[in-house]
What we know:
Pfam families: PNPOx_N (PF01243). By secondary structure, the protein is an alpha+beta fold.
Amino acid sequence: MNWLKETDLTGIYGAPGPASTRKVADRLTPDYARFIAAARFCVLATVGPEGTDASPRGDDGPVARALDERHLAIPDWRGNDRIDSIRNIVRDGRVSLMFLVRGSGNAIRVNGTARLTDDAELRQSFEHRGKLPRTVIVVQVAEIYFQCARAVIRAALWEGGDDSGGLPTPGQILANMTEGEVGGASYDAEWPQRAARTMW
């Protein structure tokens, strides 16, 4: 196996063209702000002493809100309570975000630094169905740009269909990991109602 070094990369990939470099902004331009406002889903990548983490974030409306042209706010709704991303943010604020908009081939990428707040007024501004996020992630944008659509096109991401047939269920994974102590068919059967009660 030939493991490459950074000095090898230019010979393989060449230099990026202006369409790759001129699209980068250091703030939320009006065009990028429209994409963010339309996105119901993003992936939040963080880094901490134990390594990296990537966490899906989703909502039934915009997954993030622009506070101004340099800051985004993301409410921390209910999850699995591992708080891997949250813990990383308070220890090392470096984050990356990838926003996807259903039907669009482009992914919007944001790199920056994040801080975590339990500010009552900001939490209240995200009130949804009588519930508040426990905390809010505030991201300071260092750079934002769109990723070309090739990956989404190759994956046929928005073309419908269901590729999940035959995959193990969460209950099966838990049962296998715990020798039957946790999970199983009852876990899967109860999940839809449990999720509905704890969505926010």
